[in-house]
Amino acid sequence: MKLRTVQAQYPIRRWLILSLFLCGMVLLSSRAVYLQLLENDFLKDHGDARSIRIVDIPAHRAVITDRNGEQLAMSTPVDSIWVTPRKVMEDEDRLSELAKVMNMTVDELQQLLRDRISRDFIYLKRHADPDLVAAVKELGIKGISTEREYKRYYPAAEVTSHFIGFTNIDDKGQEGLELAYDDWLTGKPGKKRVLKDRLNRVVENIESIEPSEPGKRLTLSIDRRVQYLAYRELATAVKYHHARSGSLVMLDIKTGEVMAMVGYPSYNPNNRKVLKSQYFRNRAVTDVFEPGSTMKPFTIVAGLESGIYTPHSAINTSPGYFKVGDHTIRDMHNYGNINVSTVITKSSNVGASKIALSLEPEQYWSTLSSFGFGQLVGSGFPGESSGTLSPYNTWSDVEMATLSFGYGISVTPLQLAHAYSVLATGGVMLPVSFLKVTSPVSGKRVIPENIARQVRKMLETVVSEEGTGKRAAVRGYRVIGKTGTVYKYIRGGYSDDRYLSVFAGIAPASEPQFAMVVLIDEPGGDHHYGGVVAAPVFSRVMEGTFRLLNVPPDDLPAFTSPILAKSHKPQQLMGFE
């Protein structure tokens, strides 16, 4: 009774309210029909703008291999963990779980997220271990995602690190050939359209817009086996002699290829946590030194080219010293009246000085310059040094004299090996290559072939029982070479107790195939002569290389020679080479 009374009292209000509801329903239905049928594209575009994204497809960095196809650098897929800070902070109670998995304190994690709260994307861990990625995903905390990236891996580690270099965490070359050939190796990233959910996770790959192009394979000139052998022997010598460092370069003289290039101490590019920048540089290419007596062959070349001398020309070195201005040049012994060939055999400073001083400065400079001294080798290796060869019009008599036995000029181990390769090729200079050479190589003639042959014959006497480099001998093979022991230059002059031990050589002598330079920086103890410290390294590396590459012997009677069968244990030589 009461309800009927209310309805009777307010009929107009009741119908008014019903009419308003009905009009609202009509308006909403009309709007829905309008949007679904007439504004469909508008809605779709706005929906896509919120969920469809165009993302990059990373390009796979190409592999680097040795000359035989053995992989020396490769990129492997890994996951990186990233977060949207404000979304993670919404679940702040679970930060302790995330911090524990990430091996962080809760305070560290909170500080990291709060400092970047306005950003939509920050990395929590780049190149994470698979176990860590799985543990983070298992937590199920919103705002955390993973991204597929690539991590560079170097199977040979320390053995090739100075040569190949390394990439940064973004897979971009930072040192060595990784830097020099970065564009070649990198490739071109692609693009694809994907559907993402509200947590910015990829739900579906919709379409490929532009495919990625992988980088191009890089085939190096080095032989991994020879590289390993060279590194092992160099590291052993540096440790045995308590030296500061060492470098070794081996060139294939027929192609100009670098067969091995190592330095010690080295570093492991796979372990970025302990990388030390002082170990990054490739000393064989970037560091210069005064070559000492290993320069004497080029002084002899200049003397022979002048026409003043022949291999049999007599030079009086008595009484074992020679005064030039206020400077006295000395030999370790008084060799008396010797010929040009014996100047090399006995490594006579007096003899080399007298030859140099008898030449025109311009002609002497021209000969040294033609071997590439004072110039870049042109290898393209990052940080390559040109060394120094001062202009001839600034030379004094003392400078010419000391230049003849390797003081007042600076070279890199690569430069010196390149210069010796000219002697090995019969006077033709070939370009140095860090990449495998597959086609014939043309070079530039530097000196006449007969002069190169004569100097090689002189250098062979150095590796005889009478020479200073007998410990560089290789059983079954004839070896050409020259020792060098250099007072190290320090601030204020030359040190009396710090040395560089050098050996530069070529083998086999009958048909040269390889040129090698070994440099040991500051050997300790009583043994510091090039013939004692560096020459045995040359011998062991060259012997192993011949065995690995099946190089036939050219001195078979030497297999039974008691001289060359002697041990290579260090012994002190009386005098400098």
Describe the structure.
The chain has 577 residues and is an alpha+beta fold. The protein has a domain at 55-219: Penicillin-binding protein 2a (Domain 2) (Alpha-Beta Complex), CATH 3.90.1310.10. The chain has helices at 2-9, 11-38, 40-51, 85-89, 95-101, 106-115, 130-139, 161-164, 176-180, 182-186, 224-240, 283-286, 296-306, 340-345, 349-357, 361-370, 397-403, 413-424, 449-460, 530-533, 535-549, and strands at 52-57, 64-65, 71-83, 122-128, 144-153, 190-196, 202-210, 218-219, 245-252, 257-264, 314-316, 321-324, 327-330, 337-339, 428-429, 444-445, 480-490, 493-507, 514-521. Strands 2, 3, 4, 5 and 8 form a five-stranded mixed beta sheet that branches. It starts with a helix and ends in a 28-residue tail after the last helix. The relative contact order is 0.10. Residues 562-576 have low confidence and may be disordered.
Helix content: 25-40%
Structural class: alpha+beta
Please outline the major beta sheet: 5 strands, mixed
By CATH's scheme, which homologous superfamily of the domain at 55-219 applies? Penicillin-binding protein 2a (Domain 2)
Average pLDDT taken over every residue = 86
The low-pLDDT segments are 562-576
State the end-to-end distance: 131 Å
Helices, by number, come to: 21
CATH topology of the domain at 55-219: Penicillin-binding protein 2a (Domain 2)
What is the alpha-carbon Rg in Å? 36 Å
User: What is the CATH level 1 assignment of the domain at 55-219?
Assistant: Alpha Beta
What is the correct CATH architecture of the domain at 55-219?
Answer: Alpha-Beta Complex
Strand content: 15-25%
Query: What shape does the CA trace take?
Result: elongated
Number of strands: 19
